[in-house]
Amino acid sequence: MKRDDRVGPPLLGGERETLRAFLDYHRETLALKCAGLSDEQLRERSMEPSTLSLLALVRHLAEVERAWFRRVFEDEDAPMVWSEKPFDFQAAYDASASTGAEAFAAWEAEVETSRRIEREAASLDLVGRQPRWEKDVSLRMVMVHVLLEYGRHNGHADLLREGVDGTVGA
Q1: Which of 18, 9, 23 is nearest to 65 (CA)?
Q2: pLDDT band with cut points at 50, 70 and 90 for residue 130
């Protein structure tokens, strides 16, 4: 695993700065958990019949970023990255034919779009429409939701990485 260069969130920051920092910290954690692994190692599954792998998590979180930032605040009709169906998050878990380069390129592009949307927003009170729920949501709610997604899936990534090569931590 590469050196841990993650920057921790501020201890006394404001709401927006703190949310942004925690989200970026968790994004960096996912990348750190995958660092230095081959495509074959990234595709190693947790256990049958699950399709969960580190590569599947990267693909899934690319979908999460798109669904919660791009689709809510910019383009409700933006297609899913790996599925023809509008809200099919499961398709991303089939990473059997995927590569780390492909998955990370998609994830990084979505992360940059998400960061841009957040930076350009006048406040966390920005309202967008969550097409899956057909309800209005605030940027604040979206950032917290995506942060929780990363927290949950980085826990999976801890166990997956340990299973691949014994690496623990981060």
Answers
A1: 23
A2: very high
